[in-house]
């Protein structure tokens, strides 16, 4: 399966880079296609003060990926002589890596998990030691994507597998690569995406196409299987000194410590999804977010600032706008439900809150949301603040209300697709929750995460959320036609 996925992704990139990918639309609106330029052959590079996002040009004849396994990084060909290597041959190359017993090299990938200025200093030191180290980093950053092969020591449950996809074991990861295919030898497969270059909507399009391809039960291509019979994986070897080795070891320990402090919980509500929600007169997204607001209010007695990503790919270079589901109407509903008001009143409040939610999303999709405009102003102020010389009462970005607004205690994002079993990310503030969710035709799925400071609160929030799904459904069913 991994070989077929690699073959598909290499073929997908070939189609896009040669201009063969069809224009995508949202309803009748064309979507910005150049966003795919940031997905493959890209890497985030740490520099002091500000990182660089690097995209390598396409090579007509040869392409490669990197494979991380057993504590080493290998260069793996996926295109030779202008032809994509068949899946059956890629399968043999992966088997070759798994059969090796090479001694683990220095954990260079751990550098990509640490604070960015320190990462920049560490890479600078490693490059200065030996030109071969620089060549290795050039190979990594220009590779099509990465595959990380995990060999868990014991059987994992779903939450543990997801956490490993998100964080790893402290080794065999390179988080600066835009795409990491995580393949566990126990059967779990997932992707870890570096978010600075593109958004979830782009990757969902790639996964949807991949899912269609992999479920067509096509016979594996065996023609031209010998086009690269002399190729084999090449292990990248590193020359680093004791000081650099200690820095890398320290970063690996820090990465593992952070991974241990993250709690992840996957939840699925079956036999109730978008189809039934729509019949009750509400959009699936509004239903999820009103339930989440009700749950947070029940758990903690108040609402908090909530971030919801809204795709604006219908604009040139469009990425996302931010909607805030913690509306006045959501508060009114949450408070009334907690007080046990009558069903008729609650249904009216729920529909009003859903209407407000829908109008907010509509404005965001049209580019009329305020937060990206404010972000642009804030970044310009950061660059030219001394020239502008604002007084404190003129600078809204140091105002307490703006700080509260942008402290995303609930950071949420939606990937609703049957090809995604679970989707999630870490919280964006120390006292917050990361909530990746999807509402398909017959299911609601979510993955919630938090740091150790709120690990006692997350089970309570999940319990209240499960109850809120049932309660809001019951409210809408009251007198529903």
Overview of this protein structure:
- The protein is of the alpha+beta class.
- The longest helix has 23 residues, at 343-365.
- The strands form four sheets. Strands 5, 6, 7, 8, 9, 10 and 11 form a seven-stranded mixed sheet that branches.
- Helix 1 crosses helix 2.
- Helices cover 42% and strands 18% of the residues.
> Which structural class should the secondary elements be placed in?
alpha+beta
Q: What's the tally of helices?
A: 14
- The count of DSSP E runs of length 2 or more, i.e. the number of strands, is 17
Radius of gyration over all CA atoms, rounded: 24 Å
Residue share in helix:
40-55%
Q: How would you state the average pLDDT, rounded?
A: 92
Largest sheet: 7 strands, mixed
Unreliable stretches: none
- Beta-strand portion reads 15-25%
Shape: globular
- Span between N and C termini? 46 Å
Spell out the key features of this protein:
single chain; 481 residues; six-stranded mixed beta sheet; 14 helices; alpha+beta; 18% strand; globular
Question: Topology of this structure?
Answer:
Elements: H1 2-17, E1 25-26, E2 29-30, E3 42-45, E4 52-55, E5 63-69, E6 72-80, E7 83-84, H2 87-99, H3 116-129, H4 131-142, E8 146-150, H5 158-167, E9 179-184, E10 189-193, H6 200-214, E11 234-235, H7 242-260, E12 262-270, H8 274-279, H9 284-300, E13 306-311, E14 320-323, H10 328-338, H11 343-365, H12 371-388, H13 400-405, E15 410-414, E16 433-439, E17 443-451, H14 457-477
Parallel strand pairs: 5-8, 8-9, 13-15, 15-16
Antiparallel strand pairs: 1-2, 3-4, 5-6, 6-7, 6-11, 9-10, 12-17, 13-14, 16-17
Helix pairs in contact: 1-2, 1-6, 3-4, 9-10, 9-14, 10-11
